[in-house]
Amino acid sequence: MTNNEVVVKLDFTNAFNSLHRSDMLQAVRDRVAELFPYCYTSYVYPSWLFYDPGVVCLKKTRSRRPSQSSAVQQHTATTAAVIVVSSDTGLFRRRHSGWLSIDVVAADIQTIITEAEVTDLCLNNKCEIIAHQQTVISDSTLCPFNRVNVDNAELLGAPLFAGRVLDTAWASRCSELSRAIDRLQPICAQDALTLLCVSFSAPRVQRVMRCSPALDNSALADFDKLLRSVISHLTNCDLSDEQWLQASLPINMAGLGVRKVSSLAFPAYLASAASTESLQNTICDSVRPSEEEMLGFYLSKWQSIPGAVLPSDPLQTKQSFRDFPGITQARQQVRKSQSDATQKAQFLAASAPHSGDWLLALLVAACGVGSS
Questions:
Q1: Could you read off the pLDDT of 19-43 as tens digits, one per residue?
Q2: Fewest C-beta atoms under 10 Å: which of 35, 168, 249, 309?
Q3: Measuring CA to CA, which residue among 256, 206, 265, 260 is closest to residue 360?
Protein backbone atom coordinates (compact mmCIF):
# COMPACT_ATOMS: atom_id res chain seq x y z
CA MET A 1 0.00 0.00 0.00
CA THR A 2 1.66 3.23 -1.18
CA ASN A 3 1.27 6.81 0.01
CA ASN A 4 -1.21 7.48 -2.81
CA GLU A 5 -3.51 4.61 -1.89
CA VAL A 6 -6.18 4.42 0.79
CA VAL A 7 -8.81 2.09 2.21
CA VAL A 8 -12.22 3.46 3.19
CA LYS A 9 -14.75 2.02 5.65
CA LEU A 10 -18.32 3.28 5.26
CA ASP A 11 -21.09 3.36 7.84
CA PHE A 12 -24.69 4.36 7.14
CA THR A 13 -26.85 6.20 9.64
CA ASN A 14 -29.60 4.04 11.16
CA ALA A 15 -29.46 1.70 8.16
CA PHE A 16 -31.82 -0.92 9.59
CA ASN A 17 -34.59 1.66 10.04
CA SER A 18 -33.91 3.53 6.80
CA LEU A 19 -33.55 0.86 4.15
CA HIS A 20 -36.90 -0.15 2.73
CA ARG A 21 -37.74 -3.83 2.48
CA SER A 22 -38.80 -3.60 -1.13
CA ASP A 23 -35.40 -2.13 -2.06
CA MET A 24 -33.63 -4.94 -0.26
CA LEU A 25 -35.81 -7.65 -1.81
CA GLN A 26 -35.35 -6.25 -5.30
CA ALA A 27 -31.57 -6.10 -4.84
CA VAL A 28 -31.49 -9.69 -3.57
CA ARG A 29 -33.62 -10.87 -6.49
CA ASP A 30 -31.39 -9.12 -9.03
CA ARG A 31 -28.00 -10.09 -7.59
CA VAL A 32 -28.33 -13.23 -5.42
CA ALA A 33 -31.49 -14.81 -6.77
CA GLU A 34 -30.88 -18.08 -4.92
CA LEU A 35 -31.54 -16.26 -1.61
CA PHE A 36 -34.67 -14.49 -2.80
CA PRO A 37 -37.27 -17.13 -1.75
CA TYR A 38 -35.90 -17.17 1.79
CA CYS A 39 -35.69 -13.38 2.07
CA TYR A 40 -39.15 -12.96 0.55
CA THR A 41 -40.67 -15.34 3.08
CA SER A 42 -38.97 -13.49 5.93
CA TYR A 43 -39.77 -9.93 4.85
CA VAL A 44 -42.91 -9.90 2.71
CA TYR A 45 -45.07 -9.20 5.79
CA PRO A 46 -44.55 -6.48 8.43
CA SER A 47 -42.86 -7.38 11.72
CA TRP A 48 -44.69 -6.86 14.99
CA LEU A 49 -42.82 -5.44 17.95
CA PHE A 50 -43.93 -6.17 21.52
CA TYR A 51 -42.60 -3.57 23.93
CA ASP A 52 -45.14 -3.87 26.76
CA PRO A 53 -47.57 -6.61 27.89
CA GLY A 54 -50.64 -6.38 25.70
CA VAL A 55 -49.26 -3.52 23.58
CA VAL A 56 -48.22 -4.15 19.99
CA CYS A 57 -46.49 -1.74 17.65
CA LEU A 58 -45.45 -2.00 14.03
CA LYS A 59 -41.97 -1.03 12.99
CA LYS A 60 -41.47 2.64 12.24
CA THR A 61 -43.13 3.72 9.00
CA ARG A 62 -41.14 5.70 6.51
CA SER A 63 -42.77 8.73 4.93
CA ARG A 64 -41.79 7.58 1.44
CA ARG A 65 -44.16 4.62 1.80
CA PRO A 66 -46.57 5.59 4.57
CA SER A 67 -48.79 2.56 4.12
CA GLN A 68 -46.08 0.00 4.91
CA SER A 69 -44.06 -1.08 7.88
CA SER A 70 -40.89 -0.75 5.92
CA ALA A 71 -37.69 -1.28 7.89
CA VAL A 72 -35.52 -4.35 7.64
CA GLN A 73 -34.11 -5.97 10.76
CA GLN A 74 -30.72 -4.86 12.02
CA HIS A 75 -28.76 -8.04 11.26
CA THR A 76 -29.88 -7.83 7.62
CA ALA A 77 -29.45 -4.12 7.02
CA THR A 78 -25.70 -3.97 6.43
CA THR A 79 -25.70 -6.65 3.75
CA ALA A 80 -28.83 -5.25 2.16
CA ALA A 81 -27.41 -1.74 2.06
CA VAL A 82 -24.25 -2.93 0.34
CA ILE A 83 -26.28 -4.87 -2.21
CA VAL A 84 -28.46 -1.86 -2.97
CA VAL A 85 -25.69 0.69 -3.47
CA SER A 86 -23.12 -1.53 -5.17
CA SER A 87 -24.85 -1.91 -8.52
CA ASP A 88 -22.27 -0.70 -11.05
CA THR A 89 -19.97 1.56 -9.10
CA GLY A 90 -16.31 1.78 -9.94
CA LEU A 91 -15.45 0.47 -6.49
CA PHE A 92 -16.80 -2.94 -7.41
CA ARG A 93 -15.78 -2.89 -11.07
CA ARG A 94 -12.15 -2.41 -10.00
CA ARG A 95 -12.09 -4.93 -7.20
CA HIS A 96 -9.53 -7.12 -9.03
CA SER A 97 -6.99 -4.37 -9.67
CA GLY A 98 -5.40 -4.25 -6.22
CA TRP A 99 -5.29 -1.21 -3.94
CA LEU A 100 -7.03 1.92 -5.23
CA SER A 101 -5.63 5.41 -5.55
CA ILE A 102 -7.18 8.33 -3.67
CA ASP A 103 -8.90 9.89 -6.70
CA VAL A 104 -10.46 6.57 -7.74
CA VAL A 105 -11.75 5.91 -4.21
CA ALA A 106 -13.15 9.44 -3.93
CA ALA A 107 -15.05 9.04 -7.20
CA ASP A 108 -16.42 5.69 -6.10
CA ILE A 109 -17.54 7.05 -2.72
CA GLN A 110 -19.36 9.90 -4.45
CA THR A 111 -21.17 7.34 -6.64
CA ILE A 112 -22.17 5.37 -3.55
CA ILE A 113 -23.47 8.50 -1.85
CA THR A 114 -25.57 9.35 -4.89
CA GLU A 115 -27.05 5.87 -5.21
CA ALA A 116 -27.62 5.57 -1.46
CA GLU A 117 -29.78 8.70 -1.47
CA VAL A 118 -32.28 6.86 -3.68
CA THR A 119 -32.81 4.35 -0.87
CA ASP A 120 -32.82 6.99 1.91
CA LEU A 121 -29.41 5.95 3.19
CA CYS A 122 -26.78 8.49 4.22
CA LEU A 123 -23.25 8.18 5.56
CA ASN A 124 -22.54 9.18 9.15
CA ASN A 125 -19.52 10.44 11.06
CA LYS A 126 -18.23 6.93 11.79
CA CYS A 127 -16.77 6.50 8.29
CA GLU A 128 -13.01 5.94 8.26
CA ILE A 129 -10.19 6.41 5.80
CA ILE A 130 -7.14 4.22 6.36
CA ALA A 131 -3.88 5.61 5.01
CA HIS A 132 -0.21 6.09 5.82
CA GLN A 133 0.60 9.02 8.05
CA GLN A 134 2.39 10.88 5.25
CA THR A 135 -0.49 10.47 2.79
CA VAL A 136 -2.02 13.82 1.82
CA ILE A 137 -5.81 13.77 1.49
CA SER A 138 -7.35 16.93 0.08
CA ASP A 139 -10.46 15.60 -1.65
CA SER A 140 -13.60 17.17 -0.19
CA THR A 141 -15.43 13.82 -0.19
CA LEU A 142 -12.80 12.06 1.91
CA CYS A 143 -11.64 14.87 4.20
CA PRO A 144 -14.61 14.57 6.65
CA PHE A 145 -13.85 10.87 7.26
CA ASN A 146 -12.04 9.86 10.45
CA ARG A 147 -8.34 9.44 9.67
CA VAL A 148 -6.79 6.13 10.79
CA ASN A 149 -3.14 5.24 10.36
CA VAL A 150 -2.44 1.93 8.60
CA ASP A 151 -0.77 0.47 11.71
CA ASN A 152 -3.95 1.13 13.73
CA ALA A 153 -6.40 -0.25 11.21
CA GLU A 154 -9.24 -2.55 12.24
CA LEU A 155 -11.77 -4.44 10.14
CA LEU A 156 -15.01 -5.65 11.71
CA GLY A 157 -13.44 -5.25 15.13
CA ALA A 158 -10.27 -7.23 14.38
CA PRO A 159 -6.88 -5.42 14.32
CA LEU A 160 -5.12 -5.95 11.00
CA PHE A 161 -1.53 -5.49 12.17
CA ALA A 162 0.60 -5.98 15.25
CA GLY A 163 0.90 -2.81 17.29
CA ARG A 164 -0.96 -0.57 19.70
CA VAL A 165 -4.47 -1.49 18.54
CA LEU A 166 -3.77 -5.22 18.83
CA ASP A 167 -2.22 -4.70 22.29
CA THR A 168 -5.33 -2.81 23.34
CA ALA A 169 -7.60 -5.54 21.99
CA TRP A 170 -5.78 -8.24 23.96
CA ALA A 171 -5.70 -6.09 27.09
CA SER A 172 -9.47 -5.77 26.77
CA ARG A 173 -9.85 -9.55 26.41
CA CYS A 174 -7.71 -10.11 29.50
CA SER A 175 -9.87 -7.64 31.43
CA GLU A 176 -13.02 -9.44 30.30
CA LEU A 177 -11.60 -12.81 31.38
CA SER A 178 -10.59 -11.41 34.77
CA ARG A 179 -14.12 -10.12 35.29
CA ALA A 180 -15.58 -13.48 34.22
CA ILE A 181 -13.32 -15.32 36.65
CA ASP A 182 -14.62 -13.21 39.54
CA ARG A 183 -18.17 -14.08 38.57
CA LEU A 184 -17.37 -17.80 38.33
CA GLN A 185 -16.20 -17.95 41.93
CA PRO A 186 -19.60 -18.68 43.56
CA ILE A 187 -20.62 -21.21 40.88
CA CYS A 188 -20.27 -24.99 41.23
CA ALA A 189 -16.83 -26.10 40.00
CA GLN A 190 -18.11 -28.31 37.18
CA ASP A 191 -20.54 -25.67 35.96
CA ALA A 192 -17.79 -23.05 36.05
CA LEU A 193 -15.36 -25.34 34.21
CA THR A 194 -17.91 -25.97 31.47
CA LEU A 195 -18.55 -22.25 31.02
CA LEU A 196 -14.82 -21.62 30.95
CA CYS A 197 -14.18 -24.29 28.30
CA VAL A 198 -16.97 -23.39 25.89
CA SER A 199 -17.17 -19.64 26.32
CA PHE A 200 -14.70 -17.63 28.38
CA SER A 201 -11.34 -19.12 27.37
CA ALA A 202 -9.98 -19.73 23.85
CA PRO A 203 -13.42 -19.61 22.13
CA ARG A 204 -13.80 -16.04 23.37
CA VAL A 205 -10.66 -14.90 21.54
CA GLN A 206 -10.77 -17.29 18.58
CA ARG A 207 -11.68 -14.57 16.11
CA VAL A 208 -8.84 -12.30 17.22
CA MET A 209 -6.36 -15.18 16.98
CA ARG A 210 -7.50 -16.06 13.45
CA CYS A 211 -7.66 -12.49 12.13
CA SER A 212 -4.75 -10.73 13.83
CA PRO A 213 -1.01 -11.60 13.93
CA ALA A 214 -0.69 -12.01 17.70
CA LEU A 215 1.88 -14.81 17.66
CA ASP A 216 4.47 -13.09 19.85
CA ASN A 217 2.19 -10.74 21.76
CA SER A 218 2.99 -10.70 25.48
CA ALA A 219 -0.71 -10.50 26.33
CA LEU A 220 -1.11 -14.16 25.32
CA ALA A 221 0.93 -15.15 28.37
CA ASP A 222 -1.17 -12.84 30.54
CA PHE A 223 -4.36 -14.47 29.25
CA ASP A 224 -2.92 -17.95 29.94
CA LYS A 225 -1.88 -16.87 33.44
CA LEU A 226 -5.48 -15.95 34.19
CA LEU A 227 -6.67 -19.30 32.85
CA ARG A 228 -4.17 -21.13 35.00
CA SER A 229 -5.30 -19.26 38.10
CA VAL A 230 -8.97 -20.13 37.58
CA ILE A 231 -8.17 -23.78 36.86
CA SER A 232 -6.16 -23.91 40.08
CA HIS A 233 -9.15 -22.49 41.94
CA LEU A 234 -11.65 -24.88 40.36
CA THR A 235 -9.47 -27.94 40.99
CA ASN A 236 -8.53 -26.71 44.48
CA CYS A 237 -4.82 -27.21 43.91
CA ASP A 238 -1.76 -25.20 42.99
CA LEU A 239 -0.94 -26.50 39.51
CA SER A 240 2.68 -27.19 38.63
CA ASP A 241 3.91 -26.30 35.16
CA GLU A 242 3.46 -29.89 33.98
CA GLN A 243 -0.03 -30.16 35.50
CA TRP A 244 -1.08 -26.90 33.84
CA LEU A 245 0.33 -28.15 30.54
CA GLN A 246 -1.74 -31.34 30.84
CA ALA A 247 -4.86 -29.39 31.82
CA SER A 248 -4.50 -27.31 28.65
CA LEU A 249 -4.56 -30.39 26.41
CA PRO A 250 -7.77 -31.36 24.58
CA ILE A 251 -10.14 -33.59 26.52
CA ASN A 252 -9.44 -36.63 24.32
CA MET A 253 -5.75 -36.31 25.17
CA ALA A 254 -6.14 -36.39 28.95
CA GLY A 255 -6.62 -32.64 29.35
CA LEU A 256 -9.44 -30.44 30.62
CA GLY A 257 -9.92 -28.76 27.25
CA VAL A 258 -8.98 -25.26 28.45
CA ARG A 259 -6.51 -24.49 25.68
CA LYS A 260 -3.54 -22.16 26.15
CA VAL A 261 -3.93 -19.29 23.71
CA SER A 262 -0.14 -18.91 23.46
CA SER A 263 0.00 -22.32 21.75
CA LEU A 264 -3.26 -21.93 19.81
CA ALA A 265 -2.66 -18.49 18.28
CA PHE A 266 -0.14 -19.68 15.68
CA PRO A 267 -2.14 -22.57 14.16
CA ALA A 268 -5.32 -20.46 14.26
CA TYR A 269 -3.73 -17.59 12.33
CA LEU A 270 -1.96 -19.88 9.88
CA ALA A 271 -5.13 -21.85 9.10
CA SER A 272 -7.06 -18.63 8.56
CA ALA A 273 -4.35 -17.20 6.28
CA ALA A 274 -4.24 -20.39 4.23
CA SER A 275 -8.02 -20.61 3.86
CA THR A 276 -8.27 -17.02 2.59
CA GLU A 277 -5.14 -17.03 0.44
CA SER A 278 -6.95 -17.30 -2.89
CA LEU A 279 -9.33 -14.48 -1.93
CA GLN A 280 -6.43 -12.28 -0.87
CA ASN A 281 -4.70 -12.91 -4.20
CA THR A 282 -7.88 -11.98 -6.07
CA ILE A 283 -8.28 -8.70 -4.20
CA CYS A 284 -4.60 -7.74 -4.14
CA ASP A 285 -3.33 -9.32 -7.35
CA SER A 286 -1.31 -6.29 -8.42
CA VAL A 287 0.42 -5.86 -5.05
CA ARG A 288 0.69 -9.45 -3.88
CA PRO A 289 3.39 -9.72 -1.19
CA SER A 290 6.16 -12.22 -1.76
CA GLU A 291 5.68 -15.67 -0.32
CA GLU A 292 8.66 -15.24 1.99
CA GLU A 293 7.10 -12.16 3.60
CA MET A 294 3.63 -13.51 4.27
CA LEU A 295 2.14 -16.98 4.18
CA GLY A 296 5.40 -18.68 3.21
CA PHE A 297 7.08 -17.40 6.39
CA TYR A 298 4.37 -18.89 8.60
CA LEU A 299 4.35 -22.16 6.68
CA SER A 300 8.11 -22.57 7.08
CA LYS A 301 7.84 -21.75 10.78
CA TRP A 302 5.11 -24.37 11.20
CA GLN A 303 7.19 -26.99 9.36
CA SER A 304 9.99 -26.48 11.89
CA ILE A 305 7.77 -27.80 14.70
CA PRO A 306 8.84 -31.36 15.65
CA GLY A 307 6.34 -33.84 14.27
CA ALA A 308 4.93 -31.53 11.62
CA VAL A 309 4.23 -33.54 8.46
CA LEU A 310 4.11 -31.72 5.14
CA PRO A 311 0.55 -32.21 3.80
CA SER A 312 -0.24 -33.11 0.21
CA ASP A 313 -1.87 -29.68 -0.02
CA PRO A 314 0.62 -27.07 1.29
CA LEU A 315 -2.31 -24.74 2.01
CA GLN A 316 -4.04 -27.12 4.41
CA THR A 317 -6.80 -24.95 5.88
CA LYS A 318 -7.97 -27.01 8.87
CA GLN A 319 -6.96 -25.47 12.16
CA SER A 320 -6.95 -28.89 13.83
CA PHE A 321 -4.29 -30.07 11.36
CA ARG A 322 -2.05 -27.09 12.10
CA ASP A 323 -2.67 -27.50 15.83
CA PHE A 324 -1.88 -31.22 16.04
CA PRO A 325 1.97 -31.08 16.07
CA GLY A 326 1.98 -28.62 18.96
CA ILE A 327 -0.53 -30.72 20.91
CA THR A 328 1.53 -33.86 20.32
CA GLN A 329 4.69 -32.11 21.48
CA ALA A 330 2.98 -30.89 24.67
CA ARG A 331 1.58 -34.36 25.36
CA GLN A 332 5.01 -35.92 25.02
CA GLN A 333 6.43 -33.32 27.39
CA VAL A 334 3.78 -34.22 29.97
CA ARG A 335 4.56 -37.92 29.69
CA LYS A 336 8.30 -37.34 30.10
CA SER A 337 7.67 -35.41 33.31
CA GLN A 338 5.87 -38.36 34.94
CA SER A 339 8.31 -40.11 37.21
CA ASP A 340 6.41 -43.05 38.71
CA ALA A 341 4.10 -45.79 37.54
CA THR A 342 1.03 -44.34 39.25
CA GLN A 343 1.28 -41.05 37.38
CA LYS A 344 1.76 -42.85 34.09
CA ALA A 345 -1.23 -45.12 34.73
CA GLN A 346 -3.43 -42.14 35.61
CA PHE A 347 -2.39 -40.34 32.44
CA LEU A 348 -3.10 -43.38 30.26
CA ALA A 349 -6.48 -43.85 31.94
CA ALA A 350 -7.38 -40.22 31.31
CA SER A 351 -6.33 -40.68 27.67
CA ALA A 352 -8.60 -43.69 27.13
CA PRO A 353 -11.59 -43.27 24.78
CA HIS A 354 -14.63 -41.66 26.46
CA SER A 355 -12.83 -41.18 29.78
CA GLY A 356 -13.36 -37.43 29.54
CA ASP A 357 -16.96 -37.54 28.39
CA TRP A 358 -18.14 -36.32 31.78
CA LEU A 359 -16.56 -32.97 30.94
CA LEU A 360 -18.85 -32.71 27.93
CA ALA A 361 -22.06 -33.68 29.72
CA LEU A 362 -24.89 -31.17 29.71
CA LEU A 363 -25.36 -29.70 33.17
CA VAL A 364 -28.98 -30.48 34.09
CA ALA A 365 -29.58 -30.21 37.83
CA ALA A 366 -32.89 -32.09 37.65
CA CYS A 367 -31.01 -35.13 36.34
CA GLY A 368 -28.29 -34.88 38.96
CA VAL A 369 -25.72 -33.57 36.50
CA GLY A 370 -24.11 -30.33 37.67
CA SER A 371 -25.90 -28.08 40.12
CA SER A 372 -28.52 -25.39 40.07
A1: 788 888 888 999 889 999 998 988 8
A2: 309
A3: 256
